[in-house]
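Hello Y.,

Per our agreement to keep a running log of every chain we model this quarter, I'm adding this entry. I've kept the format consistent with earlier entries: sequence first, then predicted structure.
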Amino acid sequence: MAPTPVAPPAPIAPIELKKPELSPVAEKSLGAKKMLLVVVPDFKSAKETEPVARILTTLVTAEVAMHDGYQAVSRNNLQTILAHQGDAQLLGCNEVKCMADIAKLVAADLLISGNVEKMESAYVVTLELIDPTIPKVLERQSADDGFDCTRGG
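Predicted structure for the entry above:
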């Protein structure tokens, strides 16, 4: 029996980026910078949701890069940078502090971490905006509408 094809998820509403409240340390480090450097590592997921997590990581990274004043650093960029510094094993970490350490290595101003879970027939996506200088979660958002696997979007 051939597997039932699953339609791609419905389009995600555009992300509205606004400058977050940063710590005084991060605010001072911006100084004359014209761009906020935002690290977007691979979103965490179970084995069965890895393909969806990779796609969403790519979409969020691209969305950040499209906004004026923001420069996105993807996992591939991080791999290259960390390989030169001998810290590539850090890419597998999941804790806020560990991810903040990675962001600090590349002098990032912000970090967006994500988690993708499958609950029954729907995907649940959680994003966190982190100030790596503290480290502290500045904002957390979750969404599950538009990701129904049985309806195909």
